[in-house]
Amino acid sequence: MNKYQYCVLYTTVMKQERLLRLLKKRLPEERGVAFAPMMESYRRDGGKTLELKPLFPGYIFIRSDMNAGEMHEFIRKYKPEFM
């Protein structure tokens, strides 16, 4: 039985999409997944335009089987790319 752990990263809203793309690229698929929950919303001005907005702006979640030490090393290793 695999036990998954969650890691939450905080970043600026402006960098959230870029960081999420980099994490998806660097995180081995068999080790975990990075995601940012989204919600659907309609504009208040009566427009019918559906928008996808982050449920938690600036937060990225990682579900992985890595322990805390491995996750810390993974983030430290790629931190220069994430900046």
What does this protein look like?
With 83 residues, this protein is α+β, with helices and mostly antiparallel strands. The protein has two helices and five strands; from the N terminus they run βαββββα. It has helices at residues 16-26, 68-82; strands spanning 5-10, 32-35, 38-42, 50-54, 59-64. Strands 1-5-2 form a three-stranded antiparallel beta sheet, covered by helices on one side. Strands 3-4 form a two-stranded antiparallel sheet. Strand 3 (38-42) and strand 4 form a beta hairpin. It is elongated, with a radius of gyration of 15 Å. The termini are far apart.
Span of the ends, CA to CA? 35 Å
Sheet with most strands: 3 strands, antiparallel
Radius of gyration, whole Å: 15 Å
Shape: elongated
Quick check: average pLDDT? 88
Helix content: 25-40%
> Secondary-structure element sequence?
EHEEEEH
What amount of the residues lies in strands?
25-35%
Strand order of the largest sheet: 1-5-2
- Class from secondary-structure proportions: alpha+beta
- Give the quaternary arrangement of the chains: single chain
